[in-house]
Amino acid sequence: MRISKSIALAAVLLPALAQAAPDSETFRDIHEREWAFRLAEFPWLAAYAGSDDYNDALGHVSEPHQRRRKEHWLGVREELRAISCERLTESECVDFQIYRKQIDDLVAEVETKAYLLTFNSDSGFYSGWARLPESTEFVDAKDYRDYLARLAMIPGIMDEYLGLMRHGLEIGFTQPRAVLAGREAPIAAQLVDDPTKSAFYAPFAERPAGVPEGEWPALSERAQEVIETAVVPAYRELYDFITEEYAPGARETLGAIDLPGGEEFYRGQIRFYATVDMSPQEIHDLGLREVARITAEMQAVINQVGFEGDLAAFIEFLRTDPQFYATTPRQLLAEASYWAKKIDGRLPQLFKRLPRQPYGVAPVPEDIAPFYTAGRYVDAPLDARRGGYYWVNTHDLKSRPLYALPALTLHEGAPGHHLQNALAKENSEQPPFRRYDYISAYGEGWGLYSEKLGLEMDIYETPYEHFGRLTYEMWRAARLVIDTGIHAFGWSRQQAQDYLAERTALSLHEVTTEVDRYISWPGQALSYKLGEYRIWELRREAEAELGADFDIREFHDFILALGSVPLEVLTTELRRWIAAQVGEGGEQ
Predict the structure, then answer these.
(1) Are 346 and 415 in contact (CB under 8 A)?
(2) Which of 9, 15, 251, 345 is most buried, by CB atoms within 10 Å?
(3) pLDDT tens digits for 431-449?
(4) Cα dihedral: 290, 294, 296, 297 (round 10)
(5) Cα 222–223–228 angle (5° rounding)?
(6) CA 492, CA 486: separation in Å to the nearest integer?
């Protein structure tokens, strides 16, 4: 019987596979050619993907280069029209759906002129350049020569960025003036008189063994020359432009809808970050429902601790009582490290497969810390001689509550961003355009989902830490209301700040920086809650369908093995997995 079934199956599959082969080969040829193009265009992506072919370049950003790339991707999109999922294998079809969205997003970024917003209140290209010394691998003399070639390119690329921002001023496509105060500080930090005091000179503090002693003096001298004659003048030009032209000329409105083509731009940002086809009103309404649900859970914690007062009084207590705050940066980092190691020991409860790449805990760099978020995961290439890093913001310690650290660590470290990103990079079976992609709805949705997994791992130790987790979930639910409120419904900055401050125990400093982040980065804040909401919907489906056969470790491993995928693909593939599990259960 088994032989007969195999023969019958082969009779069906072989013609189909033969038919699929041409489309498979065509698709592979398209995405391999385009990926090579993408690496050449974006040198930092190339380095992240493990290629050192472009370590001497920064990548062009001018409008002619934007248009040239758009034309290339339009050609790729046209080629993709000839391919059908019906003529691909199941796994290739998933690849195809993800790749087609990538190309659509790359085209849309140019068509909507999103590239004109060259920075936001959180970070920008200039702060990214300042991270080059720590993100570059320095082993031999070539690494230093490539690095110096990059620094020498900064004035030319800076001119391209200035050109984009000047064009933005001309057509009213700028960041709002309201979020620009103080944002010149990271630029000012690079304006040094002594080139050896520059952050860009840090790699020359000590000669690696791989660099011949005879070459070292010339490399060090060249570094000082390039920093003094190219890097510092370029940053000075940027500083003058931001303070004298851009900030005074920036728009006074807040919402993305007020930009030229703003409605289309904002809907495009929703599709890019959240990967959903939802209107701003639908997202806003979902946010309101989630805010109401989480408020009730917060009240339960207040009742549990026997606090005499309402939610506003409890939040004020959490914001002001010294017991909830570190007194030194080292103490805050030590607390974060404690949570990271506690979590690591419990990961096998919920995961079978864990990554090989480790991660460490480090402070957010001082030059960006004042306006930076509470924490962030900083990735590392798979072959780098370092791990990833969980950055913890030690600026203004009275705004960094200890009760929020468990949730923050779960999100940024493991089982959140580090676990997800490291496993994706190690998945060598996937094409590189998937392994090295990051879809915000998936990644940030997983990060927020990971915070709640802390309950199942018994991570939270006190009711206050449970409230900290609820504050973080409320923070993300409120984003659905605030982001759409600002960018579609005319909310003011103060209105958004009041909404967030009244519903979370975030510090007022964080409330201010976060709202400015949403103002200057339309749509990105939506991805967290929308992604997490979908993951929980799918988990409940799996639990209901599989009952006692539901295996949480298998469920998590399947999600992470997919890599970064749009929510539509996540939904389709998880439902396929559920059906397969049901089928296997029925045969036993």
Answers:
(1) no
(2) 251
(3) 999 999 999 999 999 999 9
(4) 150
(5) 100
(6) 7
For residue 83, give the 3-state DSSP assignment: coil
Angle, helices 405-412/463-489, rounded to nearest 10 degrees: 60
The enclosing H or E element of 411 equals: helix 405-412
Residue 401 main-chain phi, psi, to 5 deg: -65, 140
Integer-rounded Cα Rg, in Å, for the chain is 25
Separation between Cα atoms, residue 416 and residue 321, nearest integer Å? 29
Q: Which two tokens stand for residue 448?
A: 């927020």
Indicate the residue type of 331.
Answer: Q
Task: Note every long-range contact of 72-75, with CB atoms under 8 Å and residues 24 or more positions apart, other chains counting.
Answer: 72/34, 72/37, 73/34, 73/103, 73/106, 73/107, 74/107
Q: Which amino acid is at 254?
A: L
What amino acid occupies position 263?
A: E
541 contact partners, CB below 8 Å, separation of at least 6: 574, 575, 578
pLDDT, tens only, 16-44: 444 446 899 999 999 999 999 999 999 99
Given a cut of 50, the residues of the chain with pLDDT beneath it are: 1-20, 586-588
What does 321-375 look like in DSSP terms, one character per residue?
Answer: -GGGB-SSHHHHHHHHHHHHHHHHHHGGGT-S---S--EEEEEPPTTTGGGS-SE
Helix/strand/coil (H, E, C) string of 281-312?
A: HHHHHHHHHHHHHHHHHHHHHHHHHCCCCCHH
Q: How open is the CA angle 347-352-356, to the nearest 5 degrees?
A: 75
pLDDT, position 10: 40
Inter-residue contact 442 to 568 (CB < 8 Å): no
Cross-strand pairs, 360: 389
Q: Strands 375-378, 388-392: parallel, antiparallel or unpaired by DSSP?
A: antiparallel
Contacts of 226 (CB under 8 A, 6+ apart): 148, 151, 152
Distance (Å, whole) CA 469 – CA 339: 14
